[in-house]
Design goal:
- The chain is of the alpha/beta class and 314 residues long.
- It has two domains: 6-214, P-loop containing nucleotide triphosphate hydrolases (Rossmann fold), CATH 3.40.50; 220-313.
- Helix content is 48%, strand content 14%.
- It contains 16 helices and ten strands.
- The protein has helices at 14-21, 34-43, 50-62, 76-87, 102-105, 111-121, 138-144, 161-173, 204-208, 220-230, 236-250, 260-275, 280-286, 288-291, 295-301, 305-313, and strands spanning 6-9, 66-69, 90-95, 107-109, 134-136, 149-154, 175-178, 182-186, 191-196, 211-214.
- The strands form three sheets. Strands 3-6-9-2-10 form a five-stranded parallel β-sheet, sandwiched between helices. Strands 1-8-7 form a three-stranded antiparallel β-sheet. A two-stranded antiparallel sheet has the order 4-5.
- A hairpin with a 3-residue loop joins strand 7 and strand 8 (182-186).
- Helix 10 (220-230) packs across helix 12 and helix 13 (280-286) crosses helix 16.
- The protein is elongated, with a radius of gyration of 24 Å.
- Mean pLDDT is 90; it is low at 1-22.
């Protein structure tokens, strides 16, 4: 049984693969430029600035992976989800961690099923390296469904340097080498998004294979717009106050600065408490555990929280 939409290749066709991978697509999912992509992302509930929209469009047009770096909580993963949404594709997520290996990311063989097949075959020949015994993991799955999926390699900086070596072949030629089968590649480049919180520096060889963009915390106006977009029950004044307070918190030496998602959740939580009768300063203060999720941070900010909220609500 042949694997869907795959080609077995040899080293001699490497030049052709690179030419195919670099074919420029002027229109991607009906989107003809960064400006149109920015509008499409907004329709998918994601507010992107011109820099991100341009980087994402170029990655799609050039058939290259998109590498998004930034502090935790700035919207890197959400950007990948939004890209998958506007492209009408399924999101395949590979969550990286220390010690991740090929069997978790690429593929593995179903050894119990292989052994059972050998016993049942007896003296007859059986190919135990056919697709029937191959277990696809996210990277191989993205090659099998290159035209209907987006691969998110999330928090790649949490993986080991050895894992980056696995990624290089995939990111260069969109192929995976299986010793028992040869090189397996997609007919056309899949959409790939990598994210990094910069826990450690990524290897230069990996960076060269990607279109790069740094996502910073949004300015106050844009973050308030995000709150209003994501939390429809929140008033404009509440969104402005929450954003002002969060920006003050980010200026403090906290172990984990609040991300954009925490801003949205804090606005929603405070609104719920206010609707139940709590005054605004009290509503924000009682919901502080939504935005700060570390005991040391809570203890540090407790003497300052009243002043921060008073200033934010002024």
């Amino acid at each position: 049984m042949a694997v869907l939409n795959l080609k077995l290749t040899d080293r001699g066709s490497r030049a052709t693969r690179r030419i195919d991978a670099m074919a420029i697509k002027r229109s991607v999912a009906g989107i003809n430029g960064p400006e149109e992509l920015e509008v499409a992302l907004r329709a998918a509930q994601y507010l992107a600035d011109d820099g991100l929209a341009t980087a994402a469009y170029l990655a799609l047009a050039l058939g290259k992976p998109l590498l998004l770096e930034g502090a935790p909580g700035v919207g890197k993963t959400e950007a990948a989800k939004a890209i998958a949404s506007i492209a009408g594709r399924n999101l395949i997520r590979l969550q990286c961690y220390e010690g991740i290996d090929a069997s978790a990311a690429l593929y593995e063989w179903n050894y119990p099923r292989q052994m059972l097949a050998i016993r049942q075959a007896g003296d007859d020949y059986i190919n135990i390296y056919s697709d029937d015994f191959l277990v696809s993991r996210p990277m191989l799955e993205s090659l099998q469904h290159h035209d209907s999926s987006v691969l998110l390699i999330d928090e790649v900086d949490r993986s080991d340097h050895e894992f980056e070596a696995f990624l290089l072949e995939y990111l260069s030629d969109f192929q995976i080498s299986i010793p028992e089968r040869g090189a397996v590649r997609a007919i056309s480049p899949p959409i790939v998004v990598l994210t990094s919180n910069r826990v450690r520096e990524l290897h230069e060889a990996l960076r060269r294979r990607c279109v790069y963009h740094w996502i910073d915390y949004p300015d106050a106006e844009r973050e308030a717009q995000i709150v209003l977009m994501r939390a429809s029950a929140v008033a404009q004044s509440t969104a402005d106050a929450v954003v002002a307070a969060v920006n003050r918190l980010r200026a403090e030496p906290l172990s984990k600065a609040p991300g954009v998602a925490e801003t949205v959740e804090w606005a929603e939580a405070a609104t719920v408490l206010n609707e139940q009768g709590a005054d605004w300063p009290i509503a924000f203060k009682r919901a502080i555990g939504v935005v700060l999720k570390d005991q040391d941070d809570l203890a540090y900010i407790e003497p300052k929280v009243d002043a921060i909220l008073t200033e934010a609500l002024a």
